[in-house]
Amino acid sequence: MTVAVPTRPGPSIVGRRPLRQLLGAYVALTKPRIIELLLVTTVPAMILARRGLPSLWLVLATLVGGTFAAGSANTINCYVDRDIDKVMRRTSRRPLARALVRPADALRFGIALGVAATVLLGFTVNWPSALLADAAILFYVLVYTLGLKRRTPSNIVIGGAAGCFPVLIGWSAVTGGVGWPAVVLFGVIFAWTPPHFWALAMKFRDDYAAAGVPMLPVVADVTTVARKIVGYSYVMVAVSLALVPVGHAGLPYLGVAAVLGGWFLVEAHQLSARAKAGADPKPMRLFHMSITYLTLLFAAVALGQFVR
Fold it and tell me: Does residue 127 contact residue 115 with C-beta atoms inside 8 Å?
């Protein structure tokens, strides 16, 4: 069921803008901070696949192609969600919400980035990686943004799979295919996404409610959300440890993964305890530490290949 979304009157697009401001607006459409996190997972997957350091050229080509692909998906997402971005305070300063870029121009830019990603990855890396990048774009736009986001509280559980594709692309860039270790890394990010995003949605619950987006914290009470965060956290930690037997990640990785996993579980349980007590669950603590967790875990994946 599609929910009607109230909108605020936005500013009209005004003639010409300084080139620097216009370029900044186009860069902002790609959501660079999200891209940074995606790329953090790509290089360790490549190192694990190579069992060492791949060629610098291959790494650069894969990262640039991955950046274009993620930028394409994010830009088209901004185009589709421009109505609700105006309503939500967290997103009200995005370029389309502020009318810094014409919607049609943003859509053309997003499509052009997707084409550039396909061509670059296909001709400089390999075509399996290019096709995986295209699948990631289509999944994020068609399945998550258009299909799930405004219709079901399971939106981020299923749609979050789009953010797991970089590990498959990185692995494929080295091997030309997808192996079981890449599938395990995919699983880690898949289970990590709900706790990460639900924590953010708990903080901005009123924003999502005003926009008519049925994120879990909007349709469920805080203790239910906290309980699901704990459950997914256990799954995430279990999958991260599976990389040792499946991906031969090594004992150094095992030690780091166990410590980081314990840290994450403690924070998830503390959030749940605060929620049950009727206190402020402080979800942004978990949100910020989840970024640190993923960064350090994938750093351990990479460094483990050099420390044996």
Answer: no
DSSP state of 101: S
pLDDT tens readout for residues 33-51 = 888 888 899 999 999 999 9
Q: What is the DSSP string of 133-176?
A: HHHHHHIIIIIIIIIITTT-TTHHHHHGGGGGHHHHHHHHHHHS
| Model confidence, pTM | 0.91
Sequence-distant (6+) residues with CB within 8 A of 148 are 154, 155, 158, 159
Q: Token pair 């900044």 is at which residue?
A: 24
Nearest by Cα to 34 from 140, 127, 121 = 140
pLDDT at 9 over 60: no
Q: Indicate the CATH number for domain 24-175.
A: 1.10.357.140
Phi/psi for 277 (5° steps) reads -80, -5
CA distance 272 to 17: 48
Contact 46, 170 (CB under 8 A): yes
Exposure string over 266-299, b if 16+ CB within 10 A, otherwise e = ebbeebbebbeeeeebbbeebbebbeebbbbbbe
Q: What's the CATH code, domain 179-308?
A: 1.20.120.1780
